[in-house]
What we know:
Elements: E1 3-4, E2 7-8, E3 11-12, E4 18-19, H1 24-33, H2 35-41, H3 43-61, E5 66-68, E6 84-86, H4 89-104
Parallel strand pairs: 5-6
Antiparallel strand pairs: 1-4, 2-3
Helix pairs in contact: 1-2, 2-3
Amino acid sequence: MGGAEAVLSGHVRPGSGRQVRHDRRSHRQRRVVGDAARRRIGNKRRSKRVRSALETLDALMFYDVVYVGGGNARHVTVDLGPKARTIDNRAGMLGGIKLWERRIT
Length: 105
């Protein structure tokens, strides 16, 4: 399961957190860009799908930077564009913790 937060001017945007749901739509996303897709179609084709998904996300959210992390981020073989940064899974977890700490205090 994964999630996302939008940060604007150093502040978490209210209601921006979205947990990846377990429904048909999230199942399709995992089939298209998830680990099963990587194993089925290979790193190169799956990487192109990830890039395409990020382009769609950018068109919807107009983000300044997007961090791509998790265990399979290391398998991305194409340039994800100037706004994307591949990070270690631990960095993503620590970033999420920091966002929650800011909400609590």
